[in-house]
Design a protein that fits this description.
The complex is a heterodimer. By secondary structure, chain A is an alpha/beta fold. Chain A has helices at 18-24, 30-36, 66-78, 86-91, 103-110, 143-154, 166-173, 178-182, 198-201, 218-227, 232-238, 247-254; strands at residues 7-12, 38-41, 54-60, 79-85, 134-136. In chain B, α9 (258-266) crosses α11. The chains are: A alpha/beta, B alpha+beta. The complex binds iron/sulfur cluster (SF4) (4 copies).
Chain lengths: 257, 381
């Protein structure tokens, strides 16, 4: 008899669905994944719902409503391992820009009937609410990294997910540095690798989709970016991209307010 | 065959063809996204003609030479780019072996070896020095890397003497260049004047001599040899940087110094300096399994002492502070390498200065520490 397959659930909170789609995007490997785990709850892929508890929960999205703050606790309670996937779940996502302004002001300017809206004042990462076993960064996550995390989890080993900078990724890949050869701004030196070197390989600076590197020195990078022509306002905006609410970038952008 | 020969520039094609007939994969400088990288070249026209480079801390631009000048025809008037030959002999990512589960055990499959030996064309003196440094690490001593060693032993080297130095070069003060002093099969010096585009060729090995037999050459005249010597002398004069000869000792006696914190405030810990350094040899290995656990492979990839995980031992990284990581790097290069391998770990190629996004300069850091000592001695502090 085949060994019992671990039950996998995929949960969505405030997010665009892009990270969950990375799982479907696994195409060739998807069948192997489906062989190794029982996909018990994944609304994006199937309406079938198998009740918890679950061995592995993948959580996408940030916590932006009182209802979500409540629901993430229930997900945690039903999950042996909880892995957050993507910039929303790990940093609060692009929607964490709302944290910079009073909620009433924002809701009032967007909705005709603000009184119907029940939202929290902030968009926060899952880790701010419940215990998390592993955080996989990226906006969106890289499907190879997702497979590696699942693979490592199923095989009881540590996932090979690097903590080093995007610059290392450039050099491993043989990419030519856009900052040194063209003077283009790049957040790579303070950004964790993992995307697969997407932007520098296309001759663009890195946008920090994978969040801050293990020990970012944004102060030193800002000094350099200024000599490349960025002013205070553009620096402030530069750190407020997809992972704006990661503490290192939040602080860095405040430095340029 | 005389020691120094003269060939016309079109004979480079004959050299490349000769090597390819002998089964070599010919690699040399190529133009890529505004810089020079080493890749496959099959014809002389693959060489970037008429370029010079502008290099400073955190700054690299490749600029076309004046089209009306002699340099417009040149093949080698730029110096080194971001990627050294290290990339080919010690690849950034490499599979070491693969294992498959079999009845009651597992079967090992070694990594595949490359079918063709390399011929490197355009190896600068600092790069020959770097190859010799990496040879000590990978092919000599008790822990030889058999893959590196077999590749390296078969590699044919055509060196090129620099006739112009870059803004971040300091090989002269490291005594590694700009003239190649051995360790090559052939060594070229580019001559550009009214008499045309020619190369002096020094023969450094028996395979080098054999290859030259296929090429049309003549004995170089003393005035031509002198012209070549002068051209290399010009490179000495245009060296952008210099390193103090007592750098290793200066660092050794200043393990605690305010400059470490100063440089750490500027340093991004991005690791570019170690990745581009032609002598840095650190790597990490990771094991990857197939989803069903039936297969596994071990991969090796470049690592750096600037990565926090590099010094991770039980409980956390040993070098948490950027100051400690920068000090590790520079003291390894300039001080402890001598004790470990009997040479400097730095050849003066300048890559770490140019390709540091914030332009931190190994020569300037040493000089600053030395200046602070002098200030103390002279009672200025
Ligand atoms: S392009 Fe950006 S990420 Fe890549 S090496 Fe340069 S600064 Fe670093
Ligand atoms: S300087 Fe750092 S990366 Fe380079 S060889 Fe030494 S320890 Fe390794
Ligand atoms: S330490 Fe810098 S100058 Fe010295 S060999 Fe390495 S990259 Fe070149
Ligand atoms: S010295 Fe420069 S290249 Fe090296 S880690 Fe620091 S910032 Fe990066």
């Amino acid at each position: 008899m085949a060994p019992k397959r671990p039950k996998l659930a995929v949960w969505k909170f405030s997010s665009c669905d892009g990270c969950q789609l990375s799982l479907l995007d696994c195409e060739d490997e998807l069948l192997a994944v489906a062989d190794s785990v029982e996909i018990a709850y994944f609304l994006e892929a199937s309406r079938a719902e198998i009740a918890g508890p679950y061995d592995i929960s993948l959580v996408e999205g940030s916590i932006t409503t009182p209802h979500e703050a409540e629901r993430i606790r229930r997900v945690r309670a039903q999950s042996r391992l909880l892995i957050t996937i993507g910039a929303c779940a790990t940093t609060g996502g692009i929607q964490a820009l709302k944290n910079l302004r009073p909620l009433e002001e924002l809701v009032g300017s967007v909705y005709a009937h603000p009184d119907y809206i029940k939202s929290l004042a902030t968009s926060t990462p899952v880790l701010d609410h419940v215990r998390v076993d592993f955080e996989l960064h990226g906006c969106p996550i890289n499907k190879h990294q997702l497979l590696e995390v699942l693979n490592a989890t199923l095989n009881g080993r540590k996932p090979n997910v690097p903590a080093y900078s995007q610059c290392v990724e450039c050099k491993l890949a043989g990419t030519i540095c856009v900052m040194v050869t063209e003077g283009k701004p790049c957040l790579g030196p303070v950004t964790q690798a993992g995307c697969g070197n997407v932007c520098p390989a296309c001759d663009r600076g890195c946008f920090a989709c994978f969040g801050p590197v293990e020990a970012p020195n944004t102060t030193a990078l800002s000094v350099r970016l200024k000599t490349l022509g960025m002013d205070e306002r553009s620096l402030q905006h530069y750190y407020r991209l997809f992972t704006n609410n990661a503490p290192a970038f939040r602080e860095a952008s405040k430095d340029h307010e | 065959m005389p020691n120094t020969l003269l060939i016309s520039s079109d004979q480079l094609q004959t050299l490349i063809d000769g090597l390819r007939t002998q089964g070599y994969e010919t690699m040399g400088p190529r133009l890529e996204r505004g810089t020079i990288v080493y890749g496959p070249i099959t014809s002389g026209s693959d060489l970037p003609a008429g370029f010079r480079d502008e290099q400073e801390g955190g700054h690299y631009r490749l600029v076309p030479s004046d089209p009306s000048g002699l340099e417009a025809e040149s093949f080698f008037r730029y110096v080194v780019g971001p990627y050294s030959w290290k990339r080919l002999l010690f690849p950034p990512r490499q599979r070491l072996w693969r294992a498959r589960r079999s009845d009651g055990g597992f079967a090992l499959e070694p990594a595949e070896t490359r079918p063709h030996p390399y011929a490197f064309i355009g190896v600068r003196a600092c790069e020959l020095a770097a190859l010799a440094v990496q040879d000590r690490v990978f092919s000599q001593g008790d822990f030889a890397d058999s893959g590196y060693r077999s590749q390296r032993e078969q590699t044919f080297l055509i060196a090129v003497n620099c006739t112009r130095a870059g803004g971040t070069c300091f090989c002269a003060s490291m005594h590694t260049g700009p003239r190649a002093r051995g360790g090559f099969d052939l060594c070229l010096t580019e001559l550009l004047d009214e008499s045309g585009h020619r190369f002096l060729v020094e023969v450094g090995s028996e395979p080098g001599r054999k290859l030259m037999e296929q090429v049309s050459y003549r004995r170089a005249r003393p005035d031509e040899i002198e012209q070549g010597r002068q051209a290399v002398e010009d490179a000495v004069g245009s060296m952008g940087r210099q390193m103090r000869s007592d750098a290793g000792d200066i660092l050794r006696r200043n393990q605690e110094h305010p400059r470490w914190v100063d440089v750490a405030n500027r340093c991004l810990s991005c690791a570019n300096c170690t990745m581009v350094c032609p002598t840095c040899f650190c790597s990490t290995v990771e094991d990857v399994t197939s989803l069903d656990g039936a297969e596994s492979e071990r991969r090796r990839q470049w690592d750096s002492c600037f990565n926090l995980e590099f010094s991770y031992v039980h409980g956390g990284p040993v070098r948490r502070e950027a100051a400690a990581r920068y000090r590790q790097w520079i003291t390894h290069k300039l001080t402890y390498w001598h004790e470990q391998f009997g040479t400097s770990g730095c050849t003066g190629c300048g890559r770490c200065i140019t390709w540091c996004p914030v332009g931190i300069d190994i020569t300037a850091e040493v000089a600053a520490i030395r200046d602070s000592e002098r200030a103390v001695l002279e009672g200025e502090v």
